[in-house]
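Observation: inputs received (chain + zinc ion).
Thought: call the complex predictor directly.
Action: predict_structure
Action Input:
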Amino acid sequence: MNNRSDTSPTLVRLSEYRAPAWRVSQVELTFDLGIDTTEVTSRLHLQRDPAQDAPLRLDGEGLELLSIALDGEPLAGDAWRYADNVLEVDGARDGSVLETRVCLRPAANTALEGLYLSGPRERGFLLTQCEAEGFRHITFFPDRPDVLASYTVTLCADRDRFPVLLAGGNPDGQGELEGGRHWARFVDPHPKPSYLFALVAGRLQKIERDYATGGGRAVKLVIWAEPDAIGQCGYAMDALERSMRWDEEAYGREYDLDVFHVVATHDFNMGAMENKGLNIFNAKYLLADPDSSTDDEYRAVEAVVAHEYFHNWSGNRVTCRDWFQLSLKEGLTVFREQQFSADMNSAALKRIEDVALLRRAQFPEDAGPLAHPVRPAQYSEINNFYTATVYEKGSELVRMVAGRLGRDGFRRGMDRYFARNDGQAATLEDFLGALGEANGIDLMPYLAWYAQAGTPRLSARGLYDAAHRTYTLTLSQHTPPTPHQPHKQPLPIPVKLALFDRAGQIMPLHLTDDSAETSGATERVVVLDRAEQAFVFQQITEAPVPSLLRGFSAPVILECAYEPADLALLLRHDPDGFNRWEAGQQLAARAYDNLREGNETSALDAWCDALEALFNDGAMDPALLADLLTPPGEIELAERERQVDPSHVHALRQQLQEHLALRIGQSTLQHRYESLAAHASLQLDASNQARRRLKRRVLELLSRIDPWTAHAQATLQYDNAPSMTDRLAALAVLVRGNASQAHAALAHFRERYADNPLAMDKWFSVQTQLPGELVLDRVRALEADEAFTLKNPNRVNSLFGAWARNNPDGFHRPDGSGYQLLAERLKQLDALNPQVAARMATAFNGWQRLEPGRRALARSAIESVAAHAALSRNLNEIVQSMLH
Ligand code: ARG
Ligand code: ZN
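Observation:
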């Protein structure tokens, strides 16, 4: 590896951004492809910034330089220097052409960055991953997103071994070469940064579809996969077509090349990649069929296909000036993807899913040693900043701004943003500036959100004045300190709210100073933009129950001294599914506090009573009901503790579910399960998905109070399941309950899916959900399984990731054995794949708030990683931040 750091790593700082001294207008690349060695010839047409006189410096990592020439003349050895991943060349002028030839070793590339081999060498294929800085592993280049060039790419390879040759852009000829070889050329007319370059070569099969854009461009959509997987690409093709249509309708954005290629690989560090005209996907987010994919996975495929497609405008046509602006494309594209998914499915369920993810993944990040702003101020390794903060919180920031502008205003602003920045590398200021100007609104106060880490606490106090019939809502905010940011400033926080009377009816709102047009609406947004502010509502006839932060209108933690009965009222009566869920989550969290403190049960009773009533309300949507019946997860509940004992959190959450199951009653649950199980189906439509979701939840609740019956039913469900959704749900109940039947089911699953890597990933991950005291031995046994390898990121995540992140009680063993195992594997993994190792290491996040015993053990495990020789820059940055 080439980024091993023995000295202290250099930090890249936003404040030190400088425009490039040298640009490249045009790139001509020729690849002579081979599995063991590939030769890359590059011709760069250089442009010099006349205002700067820096020498020509190009990035290049691990490149074996074979030849170098400037303007057609081979360069003498003293006219260039290649050291510390920089090639410096003397004598270049504006308009010069630099030609280099380098040798790469794809089969030896286990980091899966740059050019690498996916699959076994006999039948695997070659592909590239360049974001963020992979292009410098392919050729010498100013590898930064503000250098946009047009690309002409020629691929040459043996025809039998590499029948399919693909690169981004439009096809521009192909032909035969001597010795059974062939070539293909691609020209991308749209200037792009190097991180969007891609190629793919190998034995792949395709499915195709013709698409006509609204503006009349004929586009060939092609999805490529290995022969055994091509049959699972149909759903992704449908999702792609829906995405393209949606972006035309919702944003007026059309596709801009003649072909759009999508490729699936089992060897990928991340989810997927939006390379111009040649998207590459982790197979997990592209392949789907009912026998091996769950309903959740289908929705994830649809969302990720849309996400990568939407990048064609939010990311590719308008890209980022530097990597500090990463959320400019990622936060915006996540937001667009969330809107799309809400339109395709249920908006309320989608919002629930997204807010649950934010709380599970982003809030803990923002509260721990790795906290960073959505626009970080500095980094050592940019790949460590593809985080929940940049993606999910970044999306929430776009959502706040979009809410501020309203539907039409946001569209107007986005049109302005795309028009003004098309073909350019932009900043978050460009984004907020265009949106604001198109609407005559100053959005720059929202920049503070991008610069400040940490989750704001929003407190609300209500005061009803019966004599004046006014209700005064006082809002205040406070953001706790985060690493490097001890002092926080107030942020603009839009609070969407409604008031309910005691009968559960929503009230008309009249704010002091209201205009006639807004007065009387039942839902309003007030913006808190200082430390504290009061809002007075008029003509209020009784003390109301406030419903605050509706739709999760800002990514904050709400602190409001609700009476349990008030939350129960909202849970039962709010017409909006999301707000109802939100009230239920808050009530469940208070019920959890009741169990922990053990002196008082009013929240627990209110939560159970309300859910019992909803369970028996025939009009409830089964999917929403399933979500209402799910209390906050252990990671979220742990955030309520001063000193976390994950085993105790787990036990309390189990008790919470037992109380709920007992309140609803064994026979009621049983009855509902049977009626849902009677109609098991393979169909993917919303109502069948909803019934499967509720069935799983009911079976889980049953297993809390009557494991014997539940395990018998789970076994039946496993044996007869028409779909993976039902099969995996049943298996999970057996494994979590350590049922005697689990053994046979697991053996059967393994046998049945031995040749299906994505299903095998599920076989590994479901077993990481064994009860806490049992799981470590299983993890050790599983890593000795012949199907396990540290070289495949999906497999690593499905074993170590699922264990360390989704089974806190099983990872945080009181004797520290879990920490030691993970630390050892991190060291091994880092030698193979630094990106995956660094991401896995974030499972230690939150260690500082563990109870003292575990805290000391976790610290020494992290220290042992930090002390390991030759850590990658990636893993080094994570463990150093964790410890300081
Ligand atoms: N831009 C991709 C996406 O969000 C993520 C690729 C990140 N890859 C990486 N190695 N950091 O769609
Ligand atoms: Zn993205």
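Thought: report the result.
Final Answer: Residues 805 and 843 are 6 Å apart (CA to CA). Residues 131-132, 269-270, 272-274, 307-308, 330, 383, 386, 835 surround arginine (ligand 1) (CB under 6 Å).
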